[in-house]
Here is the input.
Amino acid sequence: MTDTAGKRGTAGRAEPGARGPVARIASPALPLYLTMIVSSAGALVGTAVLGRHATVSLAAFTVTTAVHTPAVAAVAGALRGVMPFVAAEREDPDALLPMVRDGMWLGVATGLLGAAAVGAVPLIGRASGVPEETLAELGALPALLACGVLVSAVGNSATSTLVGLGRSKPVMHAGTAGTVTAVALSLLLVGGVGPFGGLGPTGAGVAMLASNLVGAAVAHRALRRSPVLAGLRLRPGRPHVRALLRLAAVGVPLAATVLVKFAVLGVLALAAARTGSDSAAAHGISVSLANLVFTAAVAVGQATVPLVSPYVGGGDVRGLRGGVLAGVKVAMGAVLVLGGVLASAGEPVVSLFTRDAVLRGLVTGLLPVVLPAVVTDALQAVFGFGLVAVKDTVPSLVVFAACYGALALAAVPVAAVGGLTALWAALACANTVLVAGQAWAFHRRSARLPCGPAGTPG
Here is the structure.
């Protein structure tokens, strides 16, 4: 590596040990958490605008997002597999550049698969018995969101690289720009303004596609301007199959884990719905509240990967475990604070979701069992990102499949006997076992760290 490259690679990076590991995780985690919260809030605005436009429009949008949301989450999960490879070489532009390019190709490959699934929504809906009235309202929405999945995947290749480089603020800028675009265009295109009557679901699709384009453009611009890559050409070039397979070996199990979780949470929603409409609504609100808290752990887990990467490369087991435990402390602190706020202000917070006094009572009554489920979910997530850091995510998939598979089998009879309280208690139990499994897998895998530099793709 040339002297110039070496200077570029170290520019703007804090010296190791300048701050404690807790501070070095919390600082980049906060922008990531805010990005996720802003994105969730923007999605709620879009849903509300569609609901006010027409009930059938909201139904069409719901059918499409039932496929779109897990597809996007799975693609994002697959691209998180890029982070440990980037973090391992973040000071060496010559080694980093091929990974960035191969990450883009991984984004294209996974994005095309996700886009194919979303594009097939009309066929999936017809096979699932969705009413023809709802299917007729789809219009161009599935095609627009399919394009959005591909664009989002390319954007995620940039954001995952930025996270691996420890640069979370540009990720926040990209996410905020995309959300602002989505909200503004949703208000304009869905319901219309003045004589313009609006485009309904098609307008929502245009807004989401534009949001993805803006977010991806901002993220890639930030990536090109990052100190370690400044002045280098980031065009994908020719794909390297061996490097893509190494990235996919980490990312694909992550994507599969996300799909397992989505599928089982869908089973829980079905089990709640079988006990009554009020229970279904209360469960849905509880899931939304849980996600607001759990997202903090995902942000912390992502911020932990670049922190512990030097320990992985140097074969420092104690440093690696200490870094992940620091992530556990930050995640626990964040989740307990957010959970405490939610518990103390339960009624006003729940009132944002419903005016129904009975429903508010159901949700607030569930909070004592919802919070343990969230806390245990947060813990397992951080240990899962520890496995991402050591580039071995298959154990996460195996543990998830076992714990959540058992939960899926038990969900309906548990809900029938004990209602929502028993259902959420079962989820908390499954997450507790998941914590033990993830922690054990991380402990066992970290003990096998190779001495010397870590292997890299390509």
Q: What stands out?
A: The longest helix spans residues 394-446. Confidence is low (pLDDT under 50) at residues 1-17, 452-458. DSSP finds 16 helices and no strands in the chain.
